[in-house]
Amino acid sequence: MSQVNYQAIFSEIIAELQHADNLGEVASYIPELAHVDANKLGIHLTTLDNSHFSAGDAQEKFSIQSISKVLSLTLAFSLLGSKLWSRVGVEPSGSAFNSLVQLEYERGIPRNPFINAGAIVVCDVLISLLQDPKKELLAFIRKVAGSDEIHYNERVAVSEILSGHRNYALIHLMRDFGNIHNDVEDVLDLYFYLCSIEMSCSELSGAFTFLASNGINRLGGDMIVSPSKAKRINTIMQLCGFYDEAGEFSFRVGLPGKSGVGGGIVAVHPGKYSIAVWSPKLNKKGNSYLGMKVLEMLTSKTESSIF
Amino acid sequence: MSQVNYQAIFSEIIAELQHADNLGEVASYIPELAHVDANKLGIHLTTLDNSHFSAGDAQEKFSIQSISKVLSLTLAFSLLGSKLWSRVGVEPSGSAFNSLVQLEYERGIPRNPFINAGAIVVCDVLISLLQDPKKELLAFIRKVAGSDEIHYNERVAVSEILSGHRNYALIHLMRDFGNIHNDVEDVLDLYFYLCSIEMSCSELSGAFTFLASNGINRLGGDMIVSPSKAKRINTIMQLCGFYDEAGEFSFRVGLPGKSGVGGGIVAVHPGKYSIAVWSPKLNKKGNSYLGMKVLEMLTSKTESSIF
Amino acid sequence: MSQVNYQAIFSEIIAELQHADNLGEVASYIPELAHVDANKLGIHLTTLDNSHFSAGDAQEKFSIQSISKVLSLTLAFSLLGSKLWSRVGVEPSGSAFNSLVQLEYERGIPRNPFINAGAIVVCDVLISLLQDPKKELLAFIRKVAGSDEIHYNERVAVSEILSGHRNYALIHLMRDFGNIHNDVEDVLDLYFYLCSIEMSCSELSGAFTFLASNGINRLGGDMIVSPSKAKRINTIMQLCGFYDEAGEFSFRVGLPGKSGVGGGIVAVHPGKYSIAVWSPKLNKKGNSYLGMKVLEMLTSKTESSIF
Amino acid sequence: MSQVNYQAIFSEIIAELQHADNLGEVASYIPELAHVDANKLGIHLTTLDNSHFSAGDAQEKFSIQSISKVLSLTLAFSLLGSKLWSRVGVEPSGSAFNSLVQLEYERGIPRNPFINAGAIVVCDVLISLLQDPKKELLAFIRKVAGSDEIHYNERVAVSEILSGHRNYALIHLMRDFGNIHNDVEDVLDLYFYLCSIEMSCSELSGAFTFLASNGINRLGGDMIVSPSKAKRINTIMQLCGFYDEAGEFSFRVGLPGKSGVGGGIVAVHPGKYSIAVWSPKLNKKGNSYLGMKVLEMLTSKTESSIF
C-alpha cells in the first residue's frame, strides 16, 4: 500500500514551491493567530500500514481551529448515533452570508456540524452526555491521536471568547428555537476551548487515520467509530469541510478534508492514507493557500483522487 | 381647544363596544403578562389645556412594554441629538421575518428605535451617557409623566431576561458590528427593566402630551425636547410604531402612536391631545384589538386624523 | 385658506437656493432621462380654493415616473374597493435589498402599491377591469388633472421595457404565486407606459388636489374617490412614498408625498394644498435632492407639517 | 472489472423490494409527468469493459428532466473550458428557499450548473457558441449515448414553458445583472427542450460511462472531455446533484450522481461503472424514493462507495 514513494513526492513539491507565490493573509482576528510565522510549512502523511512521510515543520504544533470540529463530531456521533441528525443537518450550507437567515428559516437546526452553529450544537450534545466534557473531549482526542501531548491553548480560547460575538448571536438564536439544552456560557466555553487545540501535522495525520480505515484506530486497532459512521463523517467533510470552497477543494484535491483558520488542512484517502498540511496564509475563502496547493500537487502526482 | 365633548364620545364608544367582539389573545410568553384579566379596558385623553377625559380602567396600572421605547428614545435623543442617527435609523423595517438578515445586511445598524434591536441600541447609548442609567431613566419618565408612582416591575423584567434569547442574539450580532459599546448584560438589563414599567392610561396619556405640544411638558411648562425633536419622534411613531401594521394603524386611526404587547396604545394628535387606551387582547400583529378599535372610533367620530 | 403668501415664500426659497448646492445625479438608466437638463427647477402649489402659486420651470413637462403610481392606484382602488388589499399590502417595505426575498416569503403579495411589484399588480388589476386599459387610464389621469394635454412618452416607455429586466423577474415571480391574472407582456406594457407619463408641476399639483380635499376634484367638484379612500391613499404615500427614505421625508417635510426618478415630488397637505416640485438630480436614495429641500423649506417657513 | 455479479445483485434487490414500501409522490406540476405509471422500476448498469446488467423497465424511455443538465454542462464545458466558471459557480447552493436572494446577493452568478439558474446560464452559453443549438445539443447527447433514438418531447417542453414562471423570474434577474447574453425566450426554449429529453435507463447508463472512464466514450473510444474535466463534472455531481439532499445521497450511496423529477437517477463509480435507475415516486426533496434505495442497496452489497 505504501509503495508510492511519498517522500520523493514531498521533495518534488517542496522544490517546486520554492518558485511559487505564497499568497493570502494570516488570520488576524485574535492576536495569538496573527503572530504566527507566515512562512511555516509542514506536511505529514500516514498510511494505513503505519508508514510515515514528513516534510518541513511537520512536528511543530499550531492552532488546529475548525479541524477539531471533526473530532468533536466523531465523539458526539459515536455516543448519540443517528439521533444526532435531529439536532444538526448533513447538507452543505451555501454562502456564509446566509448563516443567520438560514438558521432562522430552518428553525434553529444548523445545516451541518462544521459551520459554527453546527459545531456549537455538537458541543451542547457533548455537555449533555459527558460528566466532565472539557476533560473527556480532550482525552478522546488524545486517544485518537495516540498522544498525551495534546492541549488546549487557554490564551487562544480566552481571546476567542472575547471576540466571539457572532457565535454568541448564533447560540442565542438556536436557544430561542430550543436547540440548545445547556447553559450558553458552558457550551461556548467548550466550543472555544475545542477550537484552541494545538497539534502538529504529524499528530493530526495520525489522528485522522481512522477515517481512512473504516473507523479503526491504526494504533491500538480499536474501533473509534463503525465503518458506516466513518463513511458518514467522510461525506460530511467532502461536502462541508471547506466553508464556501467545498466544490473547489473537491475538484482540485478530490479527497474528503477539513481546514482551519490556523492554516491547517487534513485530508483522508479512504483505504490509503491520511495527510495533514500546515501553512498559515489563507486565501479569500479562509483556507490555507499553500495547503490546498500541496494537496493538489500530491493527488495530481499520485493520481489518487476519489473521483 | 377642548370644545369637543370627549366624555360623551367615550360613553358612545363604550356603549357600542358592548355589542362588539373582543378578539385576539393575551400575550403569554411570560407568566406575568399571561395572567392579566383579558376584559380590562381603559381610556384616558389629555388635552393641551390640561382637560382630562376618562373611561373604564383608566387608573389601573399595566405593563406598558414597548410603549416605553418612546420615552427612552426621547431621553437619548435629547442628550445626544442627531448623532443618535449614526447608531440607529429612522425608517420602517418591513416584516419581522427580516430582522436578523436586515441587521446583518445593514451592518449592525437597526432600522429604527422601536424594533427590538433599535431600542437595545438606545439603551446602550443611555448607559454611555448616564451615571446611574436605570435610576435616571426612571426619574426622567416620572418627570415627563408628572408622577412619582411609576415603577419597574422586577418580576416582569426577570421573566423577560430568562426568555429573551432572541434579544441576546440581536445584541451580540450588533456587538460584532461594533454598534454596542457597553457590557451586553448591562444593556439588556436596562432594556428589560425599561419594558417592565407599569403605568395607567391616565399616567401614559399625561406623559405623552409633550409630543402633542411641540415638546413642552404641559405640567410645568418645561421643554422636554425641542419642537423639531418632538416632530421627529412623532414621525418615527407614525412610520414604525406598530410593528408590521403601521399602514393599517395610520389608515384606521391616522395619528402617530405606539403600542405594547401589554395591550396598551398611546396616540398623539399634534396641537390637540394625547390619548392612551388599554385592552390586553392582541391581534395577530401584536397590537391591542380593542385598543385600535377605540382609537379608530374616536378619530372617526371627531374627524380628527392628521391625514 | 390662501392667506399664506406662498408666492413670497417661493421667492425667498429661490433666492436662498442660489447659494445652495445642487447635489446628486440625474437618473441615467435610460437615455431619455439621462439627457434632461440637471438645472431645471419648477414649483407649483394649488390651494383648495384654487389659488395658484408658481416658480421656475413650473410649466415644463417632465417624466413623472413613479408619481403616476398614485394615480393608477387611485383608479384601481376606486373601481375595486378594499378587495384590492388581497392583492397588494399597505405596509412599508423595508430596504430594496429585500424586495425579491420578501415577495417570495410573502408568497407573491407585494408589501404596498408603490414598490415596483405592487404597482405592477395594480396594472394587472386595471387590465382585468378595463376595456382599453391604456386609453382609459390616461383618460382618468387627464380628468383628474383637468387637462387633455397629458400624454404617454412612447420612447421612454420603450426604453424602460428594454431595460426592465428586474421588473420582468418580479412579475414572473408573482405569476408563479398566482398574483398576476393577465398576460405578462400586457401588464408590463401598461406599467411602463404609466411610468412614461409627462406632466408639468402645474398639472401635477392640480391633479393631486383631490387628495388634499377628501377626494373631491377641485375643478368640477366631482368626487374622484371617497374621503375614506383619499385618506387611505395619503397614509400609503406617507409610509411608502419615498422608497427607503420615508422616515427622512416625513421628518423633514412632514406631508404625505410621492417621488419619481424623473426628479419630481408631489406632496399633499390635507385641508390646505397640493404642491409639485421638479429638480432632476437625485440623492442616493433616488429622491430629488433639491425637491426635498424646497419642500422642507416650505413647511418650515409655513410651519405646516401634519406632525 | 466486471467480476462482480451485478445481475445476481439486481435479482436480490428486486426480490427485497417486493416487501418494501414505495413511498412519495409522482411529480404533478405538468400533466405529462403526472400521468406516468408510479410502479415502473428500471435499472441498468454499464461497466467500463462494456458489460451490461439490467432489470425491470430498463428499456422504457422516461423524462430524464434535470439529469440532462449534466450533458449540457459537459458540452458547454468542453467548448468553453474554465471560462465557464466566470458565468456559473461550482459550489453547493444551500436550500432552495434562498435561490432568488442568493442569486441577487451574488449578482446574477448562480452557485452551480445544476440549480435551475445555473442550467439556464449553461443554455445561454450554448446558444452563444452553437449555430443551431437545439439540434447540435441533441446530436451531442445522441453521440455520447451512442443512439439516434433520443428525442425531445415537445409536449413536455411546451407544458414546462407554460408553467415555468419561476424560471422566467430567474432568467430576467440574471439578465438584469448581465449574465444572460441572448434572447430570454430563446434561452428558456433550449432549457425546457433540454429538460424534456426522454431516455431509457439503458441509454442513460451508456451515456454516462465517459464520466466513469476519465472522459473517454466507451463506444468509439472518443474523448468526450479531458480527464480533468470529467473529474470536475463528477465533483459537481457529488456536491450539487441532489438538490437539498446531496449529503444524504453521498452518505447512503457514496457516488457522484444526478437525479431528475421524472424519477430517474444516474450515478457513476469512477473506474468501474455507470448506472441508471428509474422509479417515478419522489421523496420530499424531489429525488426518486426507490431509486435512492436501489443505489444504496447496490453500493452496500458491493461495498463500492468512493468514501
What is the strand and helix layout of this fold?
Four copies of one chain form a homotetramer.
Chain A: H1 6-17, E1 25-26, H2 31-34, E2 42-47, E3 52-56, E4 62-63, H3 68-80, H4 99-105, H5 116-129, H6 133-145, H7 154-163, H8 165-176, H9 184-195, E5 198-199, H10 201-207, H11 209-212, H12 227-240, H13 246-252, E6 257-259, E7 264-269, E8 273-278, E9 281-282, H14 289-302
Antiparallel strand pairs in A: 1-9, 2-3, 2-8, 4-5, 6-7, 7-8
Helix pairs in contact in A: 3-5, 3-12, 5-8, 5-9, 6-10, 7-9
Short description:
By secondary structure, the first copy, chain A, is of the alpha+beta class. Chain A contains 14 helices and nine strands.
Structural overview:
The structure is a homotetramer of 307-residue chains. By secondary structure, the first copy, chain A, is an alpha+beta fold. Chain A is built from 14 helices and 9 strands. Chain A has helices at residues 6-17, 31-34, 68-80, 99-105, 116-129, 133-145, 154-163, 165-176, 184-195, 201-207, 209-212, 227-240, 246-252, 289-302, and strands at 25-26, 42-47, 52-56, 62-63, 198-199, 257-259, 264-269, 273-278, 281-282. In chain A, the strands form 3 sheets. Chain A has a 5-stranded antiparallel β-sheet. A two-stranded antiparallel sheet of chain A has the order 1-9. The model of chain A has no long low-confidence stretch (mean pLDDT 93). Chains A and D meet through helix 4, helix 12 and helix 13 of A and helix 4, helix 12 and helix 13 of D.
